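README: folding subset

This subset contains proteins for which both the sequence and a predicted structure token string are available. Records are stored as plain text. Below is the entry for Calcineurin-like phosphoesterase domain-containing protein (212 residues), shown exactly as it appears on disk.
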Amino acid sequence: MRIVAVTDLHGRAGKAREFVEELKGFDFDLLLIGGDITHFGGREQAERLLTILEELGKPILAVMGNCDGRDVLELFEEKGINIHDKRVEFKGLGIVGFGGSNITPFSTIWEFDDGHIRDSVERNYREGDILLIHAPPYGTKVDKTYTGVHVGSKALKHFIEEKQPPLVICGHIHEARGVDEIGKTLIVNPGPLSRGHYAIIDVGDRISIELR
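--- output ---
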């Protein structure tokens, strides 16, 4: 299965259009949106961006980011694409989602304490599932800010260490685009689509990741 993963669009409709034009005719199965489709915007902004992304004609699954308005989650629910605090199966692949972020100093719209994140992921996860989580795991290449501080979720890190899901897709920290590993788990932060970045992920007997 081929997945295209995007995150952190932050309302950039022009970048969404460039992304769609670049991927038209590209063969893939599923588009995953890892949060912050808006920049502190609501459903109107989110719907405008989703309309562009839907031109690819591919199934979409999404979680909200910490900078998405409260009604963005409602829109995702109405469109049947929301997987925040849920587990879904797509062509036999289990996908567990959790949006928002762990607590930040900035009091953004969607923030959860680590216990909430851990409880949700543990409740929904089944062995072999992949995770779509806006917040990255703590202490990795993909949660490190420009200042060198790690700001990810410690609960998510501990969950990964214990359960070893094959793949975690995250975002949130724009400057931490990259791929890392915790044990056998591959972790990818595609980088912000607001800067033109995304990831192509092939999931099969092995997982391969291409950052673009």
